[in-house]
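Good day; I would like, with your permission, to put a structural problem before you. I would ask you to consider whether the tokens describe a fold that such a sequence might reasonably adopt. The full record is reproduced below for your convenience:
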Amino acid sequence: KPPVHLAPLALEPLIHDVVAELTILFDERRITLSFESRPAPPILGDAQWLKQALINLLDNALRYTPSGGTVTVRLQTVGEGVVLAVEDTGHGIEPEHLPHLFERFYRSDWARAKDSGGTGLGLPIVREIAEAHGGSISVTSDVDKGSTFTLRLPAQTHQTTPAYPVGTPKT
């Protein structure tokens, strides 16, 4: 498990920075990279580890999205948490491979993985980072349409003091 140092963190600026850094790589492959954001509360997070998780997700999207495709990063509030989704218009993943994607060294298509230079560790690292933050990672995919990797993180909760200190009788 990664040693995380949790602090209040707004994800939107972090995502903007990563997208800005990686745009040139996507442009070279003629893949459109965009970021869509709705207001989201801060989380308790480790900026460096969450940046690494996003880089890993975008690296996969870049590897498996053909030239002319699109990759969209979305940030939004869902329920009591924050959702960061990376959606691509790549090949998609066959249903039988979906349950194994977050296992170390697992590759869904050996020839494709070998050509891409992947090690089979990127997604398990994302899972470990998500879990270290009290969150989760999941994937949905349609063959020949693309995949969406969804990172769910709990929003920062504000500790509230009771209206009456503990032990004080209510009048």
